[in-house]
Automatic annotation (TrEMBL):
GO molecular function, one term: kinase activity
Keywords noted in UniProt: Kinase, Membrane, Transferase, Transmembrane, Transmembrane helix
Stretches assigned to the Signal transduction histidine kinase internal region domain: 150-225
Native species: Mucilaginibacter sabulilitoris
Transmembrane segments: 12-30, 36-59, 71-89, 109-134
Name by which UniProt lists this protein: Histidine kinase
InterPro entries registered for this protein in UniProt: Bact_2-comp_sensor_kinase, HATPase_C_sf, Sig_transdc_His_kin_internal
Family annotation (Pfam families): His_kinase
PANTHER family the UniProt entry points to: SENSOR HISTIDINE KINASE YPDA (PTHR34220:SF7)
Amino acid sequence: MKIERLSVRQLQWLIWCGVAMIVFFSTVAEDPLAQALVYMMINVSFYAVIIYGNISFLYPRFYETGRRLEYVIYSALYVCAFAIGRGYLAISIYNHYFAKTPEKITWPLILAFIAGGALDFMMSLIFRIALAYFKLKQQSEEIKVQKSKAELNLLKAQLQPHFLFNTLNNIYYEIYTEAPRSAKLVEQLSEIMRYFTDETPKEQVPLSAEIGFIQNYIALETIRLRYGAEVRLEQELYKDFMVPPMLLMTLVENVFKHGIDPQINKNPVTIKLYDQNGYLYFQTINAKVERAGLPHGLGLKNLRERLSILYDDQFELNHTEENGLFIASLKIPVS
């Protein structure tokens, strides 16, 4: 397994195994095997406690939040407490199991353990930098892989629609002389799909392109209805504004999902679009269909969340019922 493919967790296990082996083989030459194993476990455990206590708690809790003095004080207390504890534990085990004559705990010995703990603490900073570097390198490699996949997917996405559009164009010319109306529907379907592939990835598109997409969508939805629908689009625009793609479609979709009764031959729908005082107003008006009532799908919820991200609180999205009509209104700022 190559190092570049190791996870952060695997790398840490590898490091600690290496530390344990170094500690063990540095003591086994002078001490019995059992004593070397015990000292190795005690020392490595305390190394881990001091290092992870710093990089996982003290450093992010105090240093990174600007509480530098508290970080120094708590770090000193932390190191002293665990270093003294490590010293007492090591000497107690040594006196109880291995020593021929018990060894006394003296201040020089305690200070030596504290100095060792301070060195461990300094190592924790190096350990943290090494882990941060490894994570950054790993993320960089993942970004390269994702970029390669994205480029490949983009190439596929470009090739597939290109083939599909050419096929639709061939079908259009084949049926144009025999069935002009059907050919027109194929053309509208092609325009809708072209809008999805070319315009929706953009952050903003011309309002005229969005309106053209809506008109094609209405035409294709209408032919699905047995008795059709009477859709009137009223526009009063003084400028071709830039708007986020597919922003107006949710309200139009709701009209055909919830405002059309397929059992009747008159389904009047009015769509109004106008700008005033730096705002774009979009409104759909349709008869209230008893079977549908007020739509509760995810469409309006997702639309409201998207509007909040795009415009913060500078938009209005409302729905009302008046005289048997369902009215949905959207107001967004434009410039």
